[in-house]
Amino acid sequence: MLLDPPLLESMSPPPARKAPYAEAVIKRRIEACPKLGSLQSINRALSELLHSEQSLNSQIAQIIRRDPSLTARLLRMVNSVYYGLSAQINNIEEAVFYLGLRQIRELSMATPVIEELEKLQTHSVTLPWKELWNHSIATAILTREILSATTFQIDDDTDYLIGLLHNVGKVIMANAFPDELQQLIGMHAHTPAAFCRLERELIGWDHAKIGAYYLEQHRISDEIITAVLHHNDPARAPQHQMFAAAVQVADHVVRHAGITGGFESVAPVEHEAWLKLDGWRILYGAEGPEGMLARAALANTLNRLPSMLQGLL
To answer: What sequence ranges are listed for the domain HDOD (predicted)?
Structure first.
């Protein structure tokens, strides 16, 4: 029996799609990206002073004055709606007083990282960078809030940094795989994990693995690398699951607030959908007092988040 041409045409295989890159090629492209000094020593002088129990506002202000960008962000932050001050603050020492050491430390980490990552941008790729930074900073804030609602003890700023850097792989993709990233921007997925599958189909690695490998080249701590690598699947993390879990939950909560990752088209996150995540189970187990407190704390933070971000970028 002969088939007519239209039917033959409908049965023909679809055009072959370009195969993902070999692992060696992916690594070589990532390794060719510029190194970022801020990832190894994030404002070291300011960090050391902020961790000293005998720090004075005047000493901290003196260091901040050396960095015009940090100064500008500091003043924008303190004059944002969040702080509700009746008069505008133009004095750095006053800003340090109102914000407190924790807020200053977070700002001092975000500023150099964002500025150096911006240097990796390729002019051939037009992307909503401000949306990415808003999402990264919001995730950093939420990650710290989430872990503070557990019994997990952290004595440094790892909790903030894992949230801040969880999407660093997207910046590297813009530098190392600009054509593929442009294609990905036009695609849609129901969840962040599903979008990672699209990245793997097109490139071979998703942004989580790309970011983790890049950070590994910078000799960043294992906790941060693991959290970045597994922030979409914390149950698969061989260690440091709490960090990866906190980033996964924070990422979903921030997306629910309408602060998206910027680069990808992913369906909105429904209210409290994060309660069904592996990350929530890892953090709080079955529904109990700790989980209930965490839900209340997240609801409070969600209300404050937009004004907390105002003036940061």
So the answer is: 36-234
- Sorted by sequence, the CB contacts under 8 Å of residue 139 that are 6+ apart come out as 163, 164, 166, 167, 247, 250, 251, 254
Structure tokens given for 43:
């404002």
Task: State CA 233 to chain mean position distance.
Answer: 15
Q: Are 268 and 192 in contact (CB under 8 A)?
A: no
* Shared-domain flag, residues 143 and 265: yes
Domain boundary among 109, 133, 163: 109
| Global confidence as pTM | 0.76
Q: What is the separation of C-alpha 294 from the centre of its chain, rounded to a whole number of angstroms?
A: 21
DSSP single-letter state for residue 153: -
Number of domains making up the chain: 2
Pair (104, 124) in one structural domain: no
Query: pLDDT tens string for the chain (313 positions)?
Result: 444 444 434 344 444 446 699 999 999 999 998 776 555 444 555 566 666 766 677 777 777 776 666 776 777 777 775 566 677 787 778 888 888 777 777 777 676 677 777 766 655 556 777 888 889 889 988 998 899 888 888 877 788 889 988 998 998 998 899 889 989 988 999 888 899 999 999 999 999 999 999 988 877 889 989 999 999 999 999 999 999 999 999 999 999 998 887 778 888 899 889 999 999 999 988 776 778 888 888 888 888 888 777 656 6
**How far is it, in rounded angstroms, from Cα 156 to Cα 225?**
16
Are 249 and 271 members of one domain?
A: yes
- Burial status of residue 55 (CB atoms within 10 A of its CB: 0-12, 13-18, 19 or more): middle
What number of other Cβ atoms are within 10 A of residue 245's Cβ? 29
Q: Are 107 and 137 in contact (CB under 8 A)?
A: no
Determine, yes or no, domain membership for 75. yes
